[in-house]
Amino acid sequence: MSYVFPPAAQASVAVDGTDDRFPVRRIFCVGRNYAAHAREMGKDPERDPPFFFTKPADAVVESGETVAYPPETGNFHYEAELVVAIGKGGRNIAEKDSLSHVWGYAVGNDLTRRDLQLKAREQGRPWDWGKAFDSSAVIGSVFPVEKVGHPCKGSIRLTVNGEIRQDADLAELIWSVPEIISILSHSMTLAPGDLIMTGTPAGVGPLVPGDICVVEIEGLGTIETPIGPREA
Questions:
Q1: Residue 4 within a domain
Q2: Quick check: is 158 in a domain?
Q3: Shortest CA distance to 181 belongs to which of 112, 111, 88?
Q4: In sequence order, what E strands does the chain have?
Q5: Which Pfam families does this one have (predicted)?
């Protein structure tokens, strides 16, 4: 068998402390998983079942890479997030078994074309144009569970040009990591290489060309994203 053109390279992210790479299969994202963020988006933070959206694997950008201000938006936002890296697949995973499927954790930034997302929401349409565009998933080095355990509390903070914009604690997640994994696995089969971005705290806001956006999670280090000129 031969391909009609060369297949795309495997998307991957760094692994902390080694030259190894974590191959990325899919990126799942949890919507409105911090109560204060739900409120700032005009939604009730009650513990309704979580909902998910996705980003393509090749949307991954590593720390330090410049992200061009994307086209077709005038309201480009940051969102600091804890990222879960799945190392063992499965379906219908019990909550009590969920953490055994985790390979590691990383710091993430769910970049968002907010105006396009909100327009889609108002029209009852999918969020893809607001969430799943090129270079929209900044993911730091993955820290293996053997190094960091399973973070369920600790600071998650985002700054723009040194000014704090988001400042919360992982303990404020509405749906915990074990719950998220279990719920997602009852809808579709999880597989090694899947990443789950677990939601962002309150304080989301705009980025402009020239900004330096830094996300830090206690025990998982930092990621830094310079914002470049608008794409042509």
A1: no
A2: yes
A3: 88
A4: 12-14, 21-23, 27-30, 52-55, 60-61, 67-69, 76-78, 80-86, 102-110, 112-113, 137-139, 143-144, 155-160, 163-169, 195-197, 205-206, 212-217, 221-230
A5: FAA_hydrolase (PF01557)
For residue 34, the model assigns a pLDDT of 84
Q: What pTM did the predictor assign? A: 0.94
Q: Is residue 6 part of a domain?
A: no
**Residue 67 CB coordination number (10 Å):** 21
Q: Number of folded domains in the chain?
A: 1
Q: For the chain, first and last CA: distance in Å?
A: 38
What the block records as the tokens of 138 is 């900044």
CATH number of domain containing 200: 3.90.850.10
Assigned domain for 5 exists: no
Read off the amino acid at residue 115.
D
Rg (alpha carbons) of the chain, rounded to whole number: 17
Interval 79-90: pLDDT, tens:
999 999 999 999
Instruction: Please state, rounded to an integer, the average pLDDT across all residues of the chain.
Output: 94
Question: Amino acid letter at 86?
Answer: I
